[in-house]
Amino acid sequence: MLGVLIAWGSSYSLTKIALAYMSPFVLTLFRFLVGALVLSIIGGGITSGWKPLMNALLNGALFVVLLNLAIEYSVNPALVSVLIYTQPIFVLLLAIILYNEKPTVLQIVGVVVAFTGLLITVGVYNFDIGDAMAILGGFVWAIGTYYYRRNLARENLVRLNAALSLYSAIIALPTLALNPYFQLSLMAFTWGIVVALIAQVVGFLLWFLGVRDLGPVVASSLSILVPVFAFLFAYLILGRVPTPMEALGSAITLIGVLLSQLRR
């Protein structure tokens, strides 16, 4: 999971840079096409069928479109990571709804604390469409995590991710009509490839490996450290420093998410 923290923690700032050269929809397609090519070569093919297609919709196309749009509208991409990583809260809620798991007192407190932190982070009156997209992305990711665990955990990891990337590219293709902007330059291709390799190839492979070996709840619990790494890389790469309220709200949110994962 350390590799996930580094890959996805840095990908928010790298995506922000790449979006200076292309629209969120072009970057989404770029990321999936490069990912599909590299992963299919490494794995010697892709996993076929309807189940990988559904996984591609949830953990691929829909999630990444929401993620890129959220980063596009955000001043500090690290804030998007905090909102996206409310996904462990949604994983817990889905466990309660789908599997009739009974939450502990700490888990209930964690949910309340996490959402209180969100209100502080984005502000009641400053909540905008980018924030909404990020939180919706967290919910979609949580659904995809459980879908993968129940239906695809035994599949070849590399081929499955190659299929996820390819199917996601096909699903996301119509969104180019919304904004096809792409600056035809070496820098645009370079940053597009960098984002694809780090976020799509390395990040997704390590994530699904963690879900398979540790389970969705434990993997989601560890992933709450991604926003910490996102803030670090936002400072190192972009020189972005969070405001006191953003830092306070983010810290409270992550503490709440951590509490929600405790079972005693």
Give an overview in words.
- This protein is an all-alpha fold.
- It has one domain.
- The chain is built from twelve helices and no strands.
- It is globular, with a radius of gyration of 17 Å.
- 52% of the residues are buried.
In angstroms, what is the radius of gyration? 17 Å
Question: Stretches where pLDDT falls below 50 for ≥5 residues?
Answer: none
Order of helices and strands: HHHHHHHHHHHH
Count of the domains = 1
Number of helices in the DSSP assignment:
12
Overall pLDDT score: 85
**Strand element count:** 0
Main pleated-sheet profile: none
The end-to-end span amounts to: 23 Å
Content-based structural category: mainly alpha
List keywords for this structure.
264 residues; mainly alpha; 12 helices; 0% strand
Write the layout of secondary structure elements.
Elements: H1 2-18, H2 24-43, H3 50-72, H4 77-84, H5 87-99, H6 105-122, H7 129-151, H8 157-172, H9 186-214, H10 216-222, H11 226-238, H12 244-260
Can you describe this structure in just a few lines?
The protein has 264 residues and is mainly alpha-helical. The chain is 77% helix and 0% strand.
